[in-house]
Amino acid sequence: VNLRLWDLDANTYVRHPLHCVDRAWPESNCYVDLWIELLHSAGADPLAAMPFALAVDLEGDQWTFFKFPAADLDVLYGVTVFELNVWRSLAAQVAEQLVLGRPAIVEVDAFYLPDTSGTSYRSQHVKTSIAIQALDSDDRRLGYFHNAGYYELEDEDFAGVFRLEGHLTDPEYLPPYVEVAKLGNRPQLTGRALHEASIALLRSHLARRPFTNPFCSYAERFRSDLEWLVAEPLAYFHNYAFATLRQCGAAFELAGAYLRWLEAGGESGLAPAAESCTRIATAAKTLQFKTASAVNCHKTLDASPMLDDMAKAWDETMTMLVARYGS
Amino acid sequence: MLTSDQTNAIRDILREHGRLAQDVAALSDQSDLFEAGLTSHASVNLMLALEDHFQIEFRQHGFCRTKWMPSLREALGL
Q: Beta strand A104-109 with A178-182: parallel, antiparallel or unpaired?
């Protein structure tokens, strides 16, 4: 049985504009990126749900791995997200949800995802999330959102993703974490109602912003991180950069895009705050490369000017937004 | 303006470090490297390799993934 929610073709799929224009951070994290495309395909504008990105914080050895809060998706788009209890064949359970009109977001091994050709595909076992919107169990084909795109896989990769082959049925293997996006649970908000609901979310996320400037904390942390990081191989740096600079940089780039979306919808005077967010994103990208270069050459780096500017831009952003939307 | 040797060197470095999903020879100078499979991770390795090869530093934080060859030329100051 060939099940699909939308008539998408991986070769002609048109991404959301957030994934089409040249951005400092074309990828944020797999979860946020796939939700952008999932909402886009469902006819919703994911930008309305971005206020949460303003509240990212330094969480010890990493920045917040930011994800759309389920409550925000519910309020704006009428989507209820719930965890699927995986108690029988995962492929059959995903198929059942598709029949109900719901994509499943499944933790899988990128080893079996052909869109990661050149990185993980058939070379590395890496945990990632995909959103399945098309499934043909007879022909063993799958249509899925991953990162910033829409892709298809088949045959052995289908077996790998669902761990169907004998050699994959390790008794110690635990079922993956699976969420279901219950689309259309209520109607999506549109137009003015969407705009106003989004501003209400902006107010609530501003209220839960970090108490102190997280970039000041990170400046201190970065200096000590760099001391051990320059002695590590470059591959280790990439893990560090993903957990830190990519998350804060991508979050503020999306926050800047959000503020521009608000302005386009009639909220005037947000351009300076949007620009401050972009400054954080760009500085994080520059710092990522400068740090990579330092690690590659095992040399030191004075990152203070960049980190100071990021902290200043965060203060400016929050001062402007709290004055207007804070309580 | 890039010499043909420089252009070939950049393409060779992209082939080695870009980990693209498609053959570099099939890319035009205006192709979108992100569409071709260049990840954030690989773009850092690519930039480091370019700096090593040309013994210069990137002038800016990165390069445009579209129109990648002119953008790299500008970012490297070649």
A: antiparallel
Closest to B27 measured CA to CA, from B59, B78, B74, B65 = B65
Instruction: Give the pair of three-digit tokens for residue A213.
Output: 């400037």
Chain B residue with minimal CA distance to A285?
B61
* Mutate: best of A22, A146, A152, A297, partner B, most B CBs <10 A: A22
pLDDT in tens, A176-225: 999 999 998 899 999 999 999 999 999 999 999 999 999 999 999 999 99
Interatomic CA distance for residues A18 and A26, integer angstroms: 8
Q: Which of B19, B44, B60 sits opposite A118 (nearest CB)?
A: B19
Report d(CA A18, CA A8) in Å as an integer.
19
Q: Tell me the C-alpha distance between A36 and B30, whole Å.
A: 26
B6: number of Cβ within 10 Å = 16
pLDDT digits (tens, 9 = 90+) for A255-311: 999 999 999 999 999 999 999 999 999 999 999 999 999 998 888 899 999 999 999
**What DSSP designation does B34 have?**
T
CA distances from A24 to A170, A172, A265, B31 (A): 41, 41, 24, 18
Q: Where are the alpha helices (DSSP H) in chain A?
A: 30-41, 70-77, 90-99, 155-161, 191-207, 214-229, 234-241, 247-264, 271-297, 304-325
Q: Residue A250 in contact with residue A29, Cβ under 8 Å?
A: yes
What tokens appear for A201 in the block? 């979310």
Distance from the Cα of A289 to chain B's closest Cα (Å) equals: 6
Q: What is the DSSP letter of A190?
A: -
Asked if A1 and A99 touch (Cβ cutoff 8 Å), the reply is: no
